[in-house]
Amino acid sequence: MLDEMINLQNSIIPACAVVTPDTPLLQALMAMNEANKKQCLLSESPHLAENSAVYSQSPGCVLVMENEALVGILTERDTVKLAVKGQNLSQTTVKQIMTKPVITLNREEFTDVFVAYNMMRRFQIRHLPILNQQKKVLGLVTLSSLRQVLNHHHFLRFRQVSEVMTRQVMTVYPFTPVREVAQILAQYNISCIVVVVEQEGMLYPVGIVTERDILQLQALELNLQHLTAEAVMSSPLFSIKSTEPLSLAQQILQKHKIRRLAVVGEQGELQGIITESNLVQVLDPLELYGILEILERKVVQLEECRIILLTKQDLELAKALKNNEFKLYYQPQVDLKTGEIVGAEALIRWISPDKGNISPIEFIPIAENTGLIVPLGQWVLKTACTQAVDWKLAGLPPLQIAVNISAQQLEHEDFVADIIDILAQTGLDPKQLKLELTESVLVRNINLTLEKFKQLQELGIEIAIDDFGTGYASLSYIQNFLFDILKIDRCFIKDITQNHKNSAIVSAIIRLSRQLNFKVIAEGVETQLERDFLAHQGCDLIQGYLISPPLPFEQFCEFYSNRK
């Protein structure tokens, strides 16, 4: 059952500061502040962190005891009300401001997390003292400690931030006095305010002021009227996009030991805020009591099936590579000015004796997930270079061969050395080899990519960016990477003569490439109208079914000879 997966004891924060009703408020605030600091130091201890998640939790309150009995509680939210009133902290005692009576829970009644959660939600409290049979305080349960022990990652990953985030957020500008910030916190009974700057009618978060910040200022006896939000805010403010899964929000909160994240849009503008309360409220006891257990078991089952399937498919791929079941097909690339075939793109095919022809769409992702993409890619490189030399021996001119490279291949430490060895073994002129990389491959490790580009181009090998325009920040790639060829994706070529947007995009890419001395290849050309349009715009090369589908080695030689 769900209870068996959770150690309830780990949700109880044992270290709580204690004061008496007659304690001066200033002394109580200092005790609360010191308790928070102590808890943070405990959380950084590797020994304690391994033993209990609760050591990373700060209680955010002090308990008020009299004659060993719990008579009240003073929280960080109470301190905000003090800041607004401007009371003399040294002349005010705890009993004048503490919350009483205190809602508590007996340890024997604390049978599952939802008992505590329901009580906190029903009474709208954030601190729930846990008592033993003798009515002595064992510790506190908070929303933070519940979130830590529940570890509902598998459930949260099916939900998005946008589903639970708070959209109505109170904001202030950096120059707002802290006293005014405290008034807003108290008036709306909220735990934080986002500090923003305004640009072109949009608000951008730059920091956050919380109840705890107000507590620390009061404990230091600082004049809140003379301080601004900018001086006391926590910055930089951690943020997340509304489309991200809730599991990511929880990971960020746990990693940085914080309680709130700003929710931002694509341009960094403020859209809302997500707190640990939002995360805990996702856990509806009535449905989650059974659903969480089912989901966790299902996730484990699916992961086990995935591992078994990947292992089986990995073995099948490895066996296919060993048994020479893979074959290269070549799609001709034609010079638009001369109409001559000047090269070809090597495309892998799996001819399985049991399953027939298997599409690369099916087996390439498996190869990438299992790591087999590196030896498979080496086979493609060596075979393509070998057959390019064989074309020349068969009487064809020195054609340039284009080979697709995966991210794992590029990141392999011997990638450049392997290419040099293959060129030496096959005798292929490096100028006849062209490597095609997609935009997503480039950003995996920019510095490493730049260094390897330089080494390859010094050998005379050309670099082409495949599927240009389909990734992110394409123009930044042009600015930062040295390459030779842009390959326009087929999605922009289709219906280019009827689709005004496609024609405008392709024309712009060709003009830009001409100014930057890049060659342009258009792939997926299927009609004469598309070819004529590209020729008129000044495109250098084309490939597609208008010229020929991908062909096996022998048929490619025959196709070239007949075309001549």
UniProtKB/TrEMBL annotation:
CBS domain span: 98-156, 165-224, 233-294
GO function term, MF aspect, one: cyclic-guanylate-specific phosphodiesterase activity
Record-annotated membrane-spanning stretches: none
Keywords: CBS domain
Domain EAL residue range list: 310-564
Alphabetical list of Pfam families matching this protein: CBS, EAL
Gene3D superfamilies for this protein: CBS-domain, EAL domain
Stated name of the protein: Uncharacterized protein
Organism: Planktothrix serta PCC 8927
